Amino acid sequence: MIVTVTMNPSVDISYPVDILKIDDVNRVENVSKTAGGKGLNVSRVIKQMDGELIASGILGGSLGAYIIDQLNDENVPNRFLKIDKESRNCIAILHEGNQTEILESGPTLDGGEGDRYFKLFEKLIEEADVITISGSLPKGLSPNYYQRLLQKSHGKDVKILVDTSGEALKQTLLGDKKPFLIKPNTDELNALLEQETTFDIKGLKEALSNSLFDGVEAIVVSMGADGAFAKIQDTFYKISIPEIKVVNPVGSGDATIAGLAMGIDQELSWEEVLKIAMTTGMLNTMEERTGRINKANFKEYFNQVKVEKIKK
Ligand code: ATP
After folding, report:
1. Per-residue pLDDT tens for 171-199?
2. What is the ipTM of this complex?
3. CA–CA distance, 167 with 200 (Å, rounded to integer)
4. 239 Cα nearest atom in ligand 1
């Protein structure tokens, strides 16, 4: 069973307009409002792949209730910590081929709320084989909060995948308890290592051999249309994908995490796990809506992914 963690979920509002008029009134007809946040995209993809999961995290207020309603409508089992503060809206204005985003930072949590989530997380650990932790931390929680979640799994038979960036990722890696897997994209890897990596095999091998990654079982660098490069224990893999028609790539990293979690949960070989992850990522890019895939296409694209072991 997979548990997904989204600490700062949102109601994602999309406003399509022909032209965005500044300092004027813009009227919108086809508004869509969906439960958002990286971990919820992960959850949806796992659900569409018929995986067993519980979506978790922290939410509150009427927007929090809306998010729960949406998850229930989509039959995504969920167990969130409910707080007295209002969850956030994130607005995307789609205009003239552009996407202008207005992202609320969300509620500021206090230590008590953080501690209450630790308790819920400890219960979920008992039920989970794999846990995914995705996205940024809400304001008020310390940047090492994910590392503290990892420490709760000490001595437990659970694999934790962390997909975050910036200081939260750095603190996750600097702590005593290492995540089982991380999935930075190329920008996140550069920011983490404070360098401009050359994304060829030599550069990637060097980057992933950085001591910051010591103790992490799997580092999967996702590279958009270029597939991915991974270091699993001491072995490097180059993963190539076919050229596809992309409709909307947003959330493909989340779909990739969903595929990784599912393959790991099923205890498949790393080659299969990586192929599943690339396929769910690609399928997400082929749909208009974020965190959606057409499972009927799975086999066709899975068969076109190539995983190549790189000689030392
Ligand atoms: P996001 O932040 O939008 O969730 P990301 O930057 O974390 O995405 P990417 O590296 O862009 O993640 O994409 C993850 C995976 O999705 C890729 O490894 C690939 O399998 C698939 N993918 C993404 N973009 C493309 C593309 N343009 N063509 C084909 N596959 C893609």
Report:
1. 999 999 999 999 999 999 999 999 999 99
2. 0.98
3. 26
4. 18
